[in-house]
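Example A, followed by Example B.
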Amino acid sequence: MVSKLLLEEIKTRWEMELQKYPAHIRGRFFAAAVVNTLNDKIVSIGLNRVLMNSNPTNHAEIVALNNVFKLSSDVRLPEYFVMVSSHEPCMMCASAIMWSGIKNVEYVFSYEETKDLFSVEEDIIMLRNSCGIDHVKNSNLYNAQQIDDQSFKNDLIEMYKKFYSEEDNNHLKEQYNLV
């Protein structure tokens, strides 16, 4: 389990990244980090880059993994690396995490919370329609655990409110063809 201190550092790094671009370029609020649990250090940070790169595969987890592999000659990451994600990873990200060698994922918001708090329900629909499951964690690809820290969760909700106005959310729904 990732330490509270490291979670705070991750949150700070996510916020620093979010400040770099406006929401209509940045895309939806999804963030990830790859951490080394042996030395309690952040190896890589990734934010959603779907709109920025005009590429639907540029989810935060994929961006974080790509950043790690740019620095590595290995095709598998050590088992002591952990993916920390703002949201429960989608099917595509779950598969990439598994292929990367990461065995443990810690996430903040479940699919249901993501739907209720951020109006994003595509992951639930996709999993049910294509796999007949409600959560990737039920698929045994890796060990997934929700971060049980309400203050951290509240901080991320406040960060979301800070960086995403109602107008931003409506614009993003249009860009993602969800209206």
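Example B, a separate protein, is given below in the same form.
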Amino acid sequence: MRWCAAIAGLLVMVGCGGGGGGGSKLCQACSSPGECDPGGLCITTGAGLPTFCGTDCSAAGATCPSGYGCVMVADGTGAIVGHQCAPDTSGVCPQTTGGPDAGTGSTDDLQFCVDQTNMYRHTVGLGDLVRSPTLEAYAAQGAMIDGTAHTPHKHFMDTGGGGVSFAENEIPWWSMAQNGTVHAIIAGGLQLMWNEGPGGGHYDNMTSSNTHLGCGIFVNGDEVTVTQDYGPQ
């Protein structure tokens, strides 16, 4: 498969051209432009990394949703072929853009992930972890990279926690068909982690002295990967 050249840190797949279109599939996981809105490109932050849909913003006066910017994309010769709405946060799709069809978990899913962890902490007399936007952004990227590579904690190990995460738990690519919903996958995964008890790595992370938690969710077809990152802020 031929890849187009990078502009502003983004790459697009062959089939880069296209007219205008809507944005209902913005940030949906994809493997080709045909899976995106008309005019939308299948974008990645680098060859071999996860891909997601952009939307056309080339028309005069076109704007992108909050959390997105209009970036230039180019073909293999370096010629600019259009402009696309893409996430502002280093190519990480914002977790507020919708449920499984968007390739991420909804805001409710992310809050549920934190709430369930705190529920277990309460049973042993521990206080609430605070939901952290910083850790959430890091976990979102980790879930996307790990879920695509099928390598647990790849992002965490490659970045050494990125300077923000001190510990990480992960529910790796569980089947939506087998479990029903993202909520059910979070609930089932956290229960297994908690059931390890003291000395179990996941349990110890859940009961650690870290004060903040961010969850990331990546939905890739039937597969759901949930990443939890723990830290001091």
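On Example B: Residues 1-22, 95-103 have pLDDT under 50 and may be disordered.
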